[in-house]
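Bug report

Summary: structure tokens for EamA-like transporter family protein differ between web form and batch submission.
Environment: batch mode, default settings.
Steps: 1) Submit the sequence below via batch. 2) Compare with the web form result.

Sequence submitted:
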Amino acid sequence: MQKSKQISLGIILAIIGVILFSAKAVMVKMAYRYQVSSEHLLLFRMSFSLPVYIIIAQFNKPSSNEGLGGKDYLWIVFFGFIGYYLASYFDFLGLQYIKAGLERIILFVYPTLVLIISRVFLKHKITKRQLIAIIITYVGVLITFWQELKLDIPNLASGVFLIFLSALTYAIYLVGSGWLIPKFGVVVFTSYAMIISSLCIISQYLIFDRSDLLSYPIEVYVLSILMAFFSTIIPSYLISWAIARLGASNVAIIGSLGPISTILLAFFVLEESLSLLQIIGAGIVILGIYITTKKR
């Protein structure tokens, strides 16, 4: 019964985390209306988040140093760089070129990427059923943005490629977090990884940019604060807690709610169009993920 409660709690945490993360794409598209650059928007998001992560990290230390070495901390640096710096950076860049709904559906391939990465690095076997499901997933993605491929949308290929890179780097982070969270604990791992990610984007600004950050409309800063708390800090811990209870692969399954929630939010908030073909494509993608991860 206790294990059942833990699983139920993990599912609830994952669902809330996925929905909150999905709202980020909509807020990014809203902020882009004010001519803010992707680098500055990501900088605002992580800068507003950083103090909270530092405070939480100060009050939460690894429960035991037994088994923890320098390599473990280097892995946190690596996954912090990959998971929330590179993944977020690619995502913000890609959203300059494509719609939020399409972005979320492309990101939706990350559960299959988790499967492939686990096979290559952790030697987990991929069955014929899983291989078929992977093919179905990518067919669904192709169908979803087929209409946009036929339109003359500037830099569409660049946007799709950038979002795919975001999905790939996030998948790497998920596999790594499933391995490191048991060593460090949920709060410590998440805090350290997010601090690393924040420092990466701040360093990028100090080295390559240093332009004025105070010239944007107040709406940009308000959206950045909302993004920091509701689509970064809160869901980052929720997803980590869910991974600790369910494992990375099961959390990836629940990630199937991401595209659906983003498409609906984009439809109601951004008034983006929602075609029948997109609905069919999204359904096929969901089917592919479901087949990939469904236990016999």
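Above is the batch result. After comparison, the two runs are identical; trailing whitespace caused the diff. The chain has a mean pLDDT of 84. Residues 14-58+66-293 form one domain.
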